[in-house]
Amino acid sequence: PPEQAARMKKLQEQEKRQKVEFRKRMEQEVSQFIQATGEPRRRFQPMNKIERSILHDVAEVAGLTSFSFGDDEDSRYVMVFKKEFAPSDEELEAYRRGEEWDPARAEERRRLRELAAQQEQEKLECGPAPAGPPNDYKDKYRHLIGSDAAKAAARTMEANKAYGCVPVANKRDTRSIEEAMNEIRAKKRLRQAEDE
Predict the structure, then answer these.
(1) Which residue has the higher pLDDT, 83 or 53?
(2) 42 forms bridges with which residues in the sheet?
């Protein structure tokens, strides 16, 4: 039907016009943002996929960095950053978690991490801690075992040299695998001959 085709064409033109208008509006906002001296980043309200892609494009053309944040489609929004204020991985992570970015808190966290790393390094430079338990178990149980029980017991221990060795007399079958297999095959052949 020709009227349907005409309606479709009209809709497409309307969409195209809306996209062009949206792009113009975004270009104005982005240029205002660039001129605003005290604003390192700007967060735009949530928008659909097409609008986000237009905004990303406008930002790229203007030499800015842009990212989308938000979990579900209707709450996703774009943030635009001036190149000299490009976000750190930490900052991006905060936005991804849906948190506000607080540079002072991040700086504090970074300082604590550095301090911890420095302490770790100093610990390593002091040399390894002496091996073994911090206290001797014999001291703990001295009232039970006396002071020389462990030493006396240690002298009487001796390895059993025959451990793991089975005397030949205890082995029932001393044939090699080949001999055993040959015997089985011979019995099998004998049985087949008898059956025939």
Answers:
(1) 53
(2) 80
Average pLDDT rounded to a whole number, residues 95-116: 80
Residues 6 or more apart from 100 whose CB is under 8 A from it?
94
Distance between CA 108 and CA 112 in Å, rounded? 6
DSSP 67: E
pTM: 0.51
Which amino acid type is present at position 126? Answer: C
Dihedral over alpha carbons 15, 18, 24, 26 (to 10 degrees): -100
- Residue 50 makes CB contacts below 8 A (sequence gap 6+) with 19
Q: At what angle do helices 89-96 and 103-125 cross, to 10 degrees?
A: 120
Cα–Cα dist 69/43, whole Å:
10
- Residue pair 41/67 in contact by the 8 Å Cβ criterion: no
**CATH number of residue 46's parent domain:** 3.30.1370.50
Q: Which two tokens stand for residue 158?
A: 């001796």
Mean pLDDT of 23-43: 90
Range of the domain at 25: 2-87
Asked if residue 13 belongs to a domain, the reply is yes
The residue that leads in pLDDT, 176 or 183, is: 183
Chain centre distance of CA 46: 29
CB 80 within 8 A of CB 42: yes
The count of structural domains within the chain is 1
